[in-house]
Predict the 3D structure of the following.
Amino acid sequence: MIRSLFTAATGMQAQSLNVDVISNNIANINTTGYKKGRAEFQDLLYQTLRTPGGTSSEGNQFPVGLQVGLGVKPAAIVKHFTQGDFIPTGNSLDIVIEGEGFFQINRPDGTVAYSRAGAFKLDNTGRIVNADGLPLEPAITLPSDTVSITISQDGVVSILQGGSTTPTQVGTIEISRFINPAGLLAVGKNLFLQTDASGDPITGQPGLEGRGTLNQGFLEHSNVNVVEELANLIIAQRAFDTNSKSVQTSDEMLQTTIGLKR
Amino acid sequence: MYKGMYIAATGAIQRSNEMDNVANNLANVNTSGFKRTILSSRFYPALEGIQQAPPSVYPNARTMTSTGKFAIDSTAGAFQTTGNPLDFALSADAFFVVEKNGQQFYTRNGAFVLSRDGFLSTPDGYRVMDRGNQPVVIDNTEGTLSVSSDGNIYLLNVQQKSNTLIAELKVSKLSDIRHAGGSLFTGTETDAVDFEVSQGVLERSNVNPVNELVNMISALRQYEMSHKVIQNFNDLAQRAVTDIGKPGA
């Protein structure tokens, strides 16, 4: 019976983690390039009270065993890299990746982070940077007399300079894809880092080797679905509730037993 | 003295086991692919082999209660559409075959991931097996993954208009099912014939909270009843000592 108390406690912990994950999804419902997470659960260990096939007295065999489970454990919080909605913005530095892939962002410490958020800006030196001012990798710098920017589907950035009628190519936006994007490490600020589980980045021009293509003038919204999250929230809350009933009942049973001795 | 007290105690112990079982089912009410366990009790004479004590020897009867039936309810849970291409669900009674370090297990939790080497595996690193008992490897560089209902994995390339078969998922039926924890089962495997694999769908737990709460209440009340019986024997003993045995009464 003490067993059931702890079993129910694992259930409550798991559901509370589930609510944490769902809340974070809902909080990021309007975050460009956000990918929803989902908590996965597995049943915990089993205590075998009687082994199936064991022999009772008189040579009879127990036809079935007796296993009591000890609760639930979180197995993983998996990121879902399905595509979010594309919102047209008309801004020439808003870029989406249609298909798989990540923009490469150069972090201040020299490491490369990966991001689906394509809301780029220009800094005071003309470099293409993200909202936090971190430049693309490889960096692309636009001359100060740039009039208009065109980004092709395969990532070539061409500009039109003042007084000129022929476009000039200033660089190519390279993107990376991973064999297991779910293995990437989310570090906040729309950035992901490569891990052992994600595998090495397959980097290059968009549209090749399974990488998606670029589209200018759009932003990728978060792929969180409100209806789905709210349904999951209700399930998580109710699951939490019922587990608390297990705790209450175990407590009542203990109380009954303690009441035996007056 | 007071055999009935021990008999009542077996009842209380059994109800407490039932409560453990209910608590585990409820803890897993939100675990993908979980199968609830059923624990019920039966009466048995303390001496195995004696089917029934004749009524005339009632004072020697020692009918106690013990675990009668333990089973895994393998009915399918609800199916939830997730849209994730690596989520798989199976029709009733069939299991995916997974392996780690040469040990084979079975699971209905089809929330798979791709490892860095392209192995289709569970979040714990158990590799999903194909019909040739080899781990399923998926190289999705040249297209997108699609799975047919008979468990064949295809790589669909829209540009080249090709649909290449890259793996066949192994699906088995199980007898003598046992829980191994971590969403895994062990058992004796037989080939599954009629099954259906759905992609982008997950099977929820088959625990019905209503059932479990009813079982919980029934376990609790029967537990309390067993305690009442113990208490009555206790009162009897007390009377014997304090009232009947009172010197000079």
